[in-house]
Amino acid sequence: MGRDRQGTLVSYRPDIKVLDCTLRDGAYLIDKKFGLENISGITRGLIDSDIDFVEVGFFQDDGFGEGKTVYKNSKEASKYLPAKKKKSQYTVLADCSRYSIENLDDRQEGIIDCIRECFFKNEISQAIENCKVIREKGYKVFVQPVDILGYSDYELLDLIEKVNAIEPFCFSIVDTFGSMYQEDLQRIFELINHNLVKTCKIGFHSHNNMQLSNALSQEFIRMSLGKRDIVIDGTLSGMGRGAGNTPTELIVQYINTKYMGKYNMDSILDIIDIYMDNIRTKCSWGYSTDYFIAGCYGAHVNNISYLNKKHSISSKNMRYILNKIDDKARKRYDYELLDKIFMEMIDEDIDDFVSLKKLKDLLKGKRILIIVPGQSILQNKNKIKEYVKNNDVVVISLNFNPDFITSDYVFVSNQGRVKNIKNRSGERRIYSSNIDKEYIEEADYIVSFKKLVKCGWKLMDNSALMLLRLLDEINCKEIIFAGFDGYSSLHTNYIDSDMEIESASMNCNERNTEIAAMLRDYMETRKNKKTGIRFITKSRFERCLLN
Length: 547
Fold this sequence. Notes:
By secondary structure, the chain is α/β, with parallel strands linked by helices. It contains 21 helices and 18 strands. The strands form three sheets. An eight-stranded parallel β-barrel has the order 3-4-6-7-8-9-10-11, surrounded by five helices. It has a seven-stranded parallel beta sheet with strand order 16-15-14-13-12-17-18. α12 (315-323) crosses α14 (335-346). The radius of gyration is 28 Å and the shape is elongated.
C-alpha cells in the first residue's frame, strides 16, 4: 500500500530507490579526505541499511590520494570498497570537465555498477558521447545536468531528445543552487516525464538553501506515483557544501512510514553516531541566512563563502552584491568581480576629509595602545591597566569596549560587532564607512573603508590591519598592541565566546598565515616607517611587525 497525491491509499508499492551520496557530495567539505576507515565504515553501514545506490566518490583524472574518495577507474576504486554489497549498487560521479572517458575500464561484477555523468549546458555534446561509452562498457548511466532551473523549456526538451537516443538508466533533476520551489519541481517533472523515454527513471538531487530539500523530496515521490520509477538522492545528516542536502535518514524514514519501505533505520543511525558526528567536528554545513540568499539568487555557494570572510559585510549587502551580478556569473565564482562590486558599494558616498583632519590633529605624534579582544587580555588586565597608568598613551579598543578600562576611542569596522558597542562617557567612536547607516550616525568620526583595505586578500577587512593603515595616515609616534594573539583551534580566541568566528572556509592556521603575510606587506609598504610597533601581550604576529 502507498498513498497518492491526495493522500488516498493505493494498492501498489511504487518503485522508489534511494541513492546516498555522502562520500561524494560530502567530500567537498574535507578535500575528499574521508580516510580509509570512514570510507569503509560508511559504505558498510549504508549496505547494511539496504540503501539501493551507494555513491562512493568521483571518477577524475587527478586529485587522488590515500583515503580520498577519488578514483581513476573501477579497478582503482575496488581497493577501497567492501566486496559484499548485498542488494546495494555502487555509483560514482564523473564530471564531464574533469574526467577523460579514455580512462574508464570495462565494468566488472561486484565493483562499480553505475556512473553519473555530470555536465554544464555547454558540455552537452561531449557528455552524450561519454554516456554512450559508459553504457558500452557495461555500466548503468545516470544523466546529471547541472542547474536544471537554468534550462528553458525549449533547451530542456532539446536535451531530453538527445538523452532519449541513448536510453540511460536515470535522468536526474538537479537543483544545484537550492533555488527550487514546489511549483518549479512540478513543472520540470511533468515536462521530463511527458517527453523522456519510458524505460528511464527520473532522479532528484536537492540542496537545502531554502530549507525545502526534504519537503521537495517528499513531493517528488507523491507527484511520481503511477507515472515513473524514481531515484532520490540524500546524504547522511544532510552533509554537503553550504546548506547541505536532503538528509538520507529523513527521506528513508518517510519512505518506510508511507510507502512500506524496508530500509534499516537503526543501521543508518549507527553510521551517524559512529562517523558523522566526528566528521562534523572538522567541517560545518547546514542552513543559514547567507545560504538562503544564495538560493534566492541561484548563486554558487563559493560566492557566499568568499563574501562571508569579510566580517564587515551584512546580509542585506551580500544580497545587494549578488543582485549586481548577472545570472551566468552567479553560478560560477569570480572573486575579483565580487571584490570590485563590494568596494563600489562600500564607498559610494563617503568623504572622510574632515574626520581624518580632526584625528590627525588629535593623534599625531602620540603613543597609541591598541587593545584587541584576544584571550590574552584576560590574563593581563592588571598589566594593561598599569601600563596605561604609568605611560602617556591614547587607548583605542578594537570592535569592543573593554570592561576593565575606559578607552579614549573605539574603532569599529566589523558590522557584526557594532550592536554590542556600549555608550560610555569619554569614549569617542571611529567607524569605517562600511557600517550600516542606522549605526554610523552614532560615530564621532567616519573614515573611508576603501582607503583602509587592500584587495587581493581573503581577509582584506581585518580590523587590526585597517586600524594600522589609518594610524599610518596620522603619523603616530609609536603603536603598542595588547590582545593581538592570532587564532588557535585549541581554545576560545576571544574574550567573549560570542565573538568567535565560525569558518569552514579558513582554518586557524590559514587565518594566521594570511594575517602574517598582510602584516609583512604593511611593514614594507607603510608611509611612516619610523613609527615603532611593539607588543605588551604575547602574539603570533610579533615577528611580522618588528622594525
